[in-house]
């Protein structure tokens, strides 16, 4: 069965060009691509005129929760949410139970992914055993078992010596180290950014330096060890400055920023509502602007959601008791398109680069390219489609979002993975 996708503008290497695509469901490959292909090149024609085809989005920061947290999300539900959001590759964080911290655990996890995933899942291995910060994992063995990179996300690596050893080993194995930057000795029981909202709600604050101190420490360790050091969910102005300086110094540091830190700041928190609680927290307006600027000038390399589903009961608790984290896969593109592309702050091509080519390049992934002979994995976007975000309609098990009820324009209407539809809205247009 061959399908001709006809009439769309296709995003490729920073440009949008009119192209028709023929996809084989049998091989899962793109067979032909040209400005105009006739109907007889395929068994079926899908009219995508007026729509955009983008390589499937890549999200290198996703919590799928399985194994151990299936009440929050599963590999199946999380990858369905990914497909709905236009993503065909997601990288799964290792703060699960058990943690993929050995070759055997990683192999077990790969088998679960093989059975249950609807899009590609690349799992992270942990930096330390059980993410406990005490004993180093075997970077080489984890890499051999298919680990995408190493991280202890959910918690910072507290000791500089441990991070030094981790980076040294990772550099030798040729695997990146991705860091959740949080110095627990600077945490002081905080739940929100140490700013006016925390003061107003009388909640302990999380300093900007709780994050930036780790980044400053780690870029120097990356320089010393030659490791590829990737900073997760950058949230402060000082962090952007430290990363900018490190890049200028030629250190191999890359960084991601999440949609919520680009879209929101502490002033948007309406009150004691845990839908606005995540780690790192929503910072000041000044930090938010520094993140936007950092993304535009290339200090921050790309966007990753930090999709962090939790149960409704957990997130109904007051801020002081609820867990940190919000979902992101189903809302990222509509929100970023509405509030940054429609407002002309970002070009559509830039946004698509931050969701496809840029993460692929940073991590040397052979995905995110559309060409004859390449895998057919792409998403079809209808930029005119208006809809109101409705958390109750999420396919993710996590309904936790601060964006419930927000009006958006533009969304994925089809997602193709291995040549097959993994998301198809009733009306394509
Ligand atoms: N981001 C969050 O607020 N929470 C994440 C952990 C993390 O990314 O640090 C989670 O696992 O729930
Ligand atoms: Zn984190
Ligand atoms: Zn995370």
UniProtKB/TrEMBL annotation:
Residues 52-237 form the Dihydroorotase catalytic domain. Signal peptide: none annotated. Zn(2+) 2 binds at residues 153, 180, 233. GO terms for biological process: 'de novo' UMP biosynthetic process; purine nucleobase catabolic process. Zn(2+) 1 binds at residues 61, 63, 153, 306. Substrate binds at residues 63-65, 95, 279, 310, 324-325. Binds 2 Zn(2+) ions per subunit. It catalyses: (S)-dihydroorotate + H2O = N-carbamoyl-L-aspartate + H(+). It comes from the Bacteria. Its EC number is 3.5.2.3. The active site is at 306. Coiled coil: none annotated. InterPro entries: DHOase, DHOase/Allantoinase_Hydrolase, DHOase_cat, Dihydroorotase_CS, Metal-dep_hydrolase_composite, Metal_Hydrolase. Keywords: Hydrolase, Metal-binding, Pyrimidine biosynthesis, Zinc. Pathway: Pyrimidine metabolism; UMP biosynthesis via de novo pathway; (S)-dihydroorotate from bicarbonate: step 3/3. GO terms for molecular function: allantoinase activity; dihydroorotase activity; zinc ion binding. GO terms for cellular component: cytoplasm. Its cofactor is Zn(2+). Belongs to the metallo-dependent hydrolases superfamily. DHOase family. Class I DHOase subfamily. Catalyzes the reversible cyclization of carbamoyl aspartate to dihydroorotate. This is Dihydroorotase. It comes from Alkalicoccus luteus. The gene is pyrC.
């Amino acid at each position: 069965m061959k399908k001709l996708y006809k009439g769309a503008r296709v995003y490729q290497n920073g440009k949008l060009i009119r192209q028709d695509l023929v996809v084989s469901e049998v091989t899962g490959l793109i067979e032909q691509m040209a400005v105009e292909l006739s109907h007889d090149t395929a068994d079926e024609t899908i009219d995508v005129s007026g729509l955009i085809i983008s390589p499937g989005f890549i999200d290198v920061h996703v919590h799928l929760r399985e194994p151990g947290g299936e009440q929050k999300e599963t590999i199946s539900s999380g990858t369905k949410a990914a497909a709905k959001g236009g993503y065909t590759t997601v990288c799964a964080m290792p703060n699960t139970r058990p943690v993929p911290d050995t070759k055997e655990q990683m192999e077990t996890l790969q088998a679960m992914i093989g059975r249950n995933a609807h899009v590609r899942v690349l799992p992270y291995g942990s930096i330390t055993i059980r993410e406990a910060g005490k004993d180093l994992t075997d970077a080489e063995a984890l890499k051999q078992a298919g680990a995408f990179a190493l991280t202890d996300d959910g918690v910072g690596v507290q000791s500089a010596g441990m991070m030094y050893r981790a980076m040294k080993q990772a550099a030798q194995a040729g695997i990146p180290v991705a860091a959740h930057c949080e110095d627990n000795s600077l945490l002081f029981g905080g739940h929100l950014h140490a700013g006016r909202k925390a003061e107003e709600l009388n909640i302990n604050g999380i300093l900007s330096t709780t994050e930036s101190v780790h980044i400053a420490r780690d870029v120097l360790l990356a320089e010393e060890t030659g490791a590829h050091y990737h900073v997760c969910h950058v949230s402060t102005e000082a962090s952007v400055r430290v990363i900018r300086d490190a890049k200028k110094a030629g250190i191999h540091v890359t960084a991601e920023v999440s949609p919520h830190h680009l879209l929101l700041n502490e002033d948007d928190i309406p009150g004691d509502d845990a839908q606005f609680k995540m780690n790192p927290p929503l910072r000041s307006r000044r930090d938010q602007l520094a993140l936007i600027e950092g993304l535009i000038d290339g200090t921050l390399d790309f966007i990753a959601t930090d999709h962090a589903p939790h149960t409704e009961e957990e997130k109904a608790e007051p801020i002081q008791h609820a867990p940190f984290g919000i979902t992101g896969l189903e809302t990222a593109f509509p929100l970023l398109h509405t509030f940054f592309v429609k407002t002309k702050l970002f070009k559509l091509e830039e946004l698509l680069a931050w969701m496809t080519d840029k993460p692929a390049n940073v991590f040397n992934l052979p995905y995110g390219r559309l060409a004859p002979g390449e895998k057919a994995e792409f998403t079809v976007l209808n930029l005119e489609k208006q809809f109101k975000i409705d958390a109750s309609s999420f396919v993710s098990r996590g309904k936790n979002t601060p964006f419930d009820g927000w009006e958006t324009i533009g969304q994925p209407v089809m997602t193709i993975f291995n040549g097959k539809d993994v998301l198809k809205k009733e009306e394509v247009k």
